[in-house]
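Chain A, query sequence.
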Amino acid sequence: MSIAANVVIAIIALLHLWFLILEMFLWTKPAGRRAFGLTPEFAEQSKALAANQGLYNGFLAAGLAWGLYLGGAGFSVKVFFLACVLVAGIFGGLTASRKILWIQALPALIGLVLVHLA
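Chain A, predicted structure.
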């Protein structure tokens, strides 16, 4: 179960690294606008906010990677950062887009369950 938990955590960390790239570097580019359904005008107007959001996603990815690096001693770190991802995913799903529940919150919930079962 520990391997499954760590694989899920690694996938979530990579997802959040991808979110960082989308929000910080690709927000105004065609790939970023397509991913978030943005007009060029809105993307340009909101790029500073998106970069800030991307930075936070990077912190989540770094925290999950740190928990993986610590191995068994990283239980609390993994739980904390998975809980942060879960809360952010629920909030985003309720306020921005329902698909965030599936892309962010559900994987975090699965990760939390697996970490506790390991």
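The CA atoms of residues 25 and 45 lie 14 Å apart. The chain has a mean pLDDT of 96.
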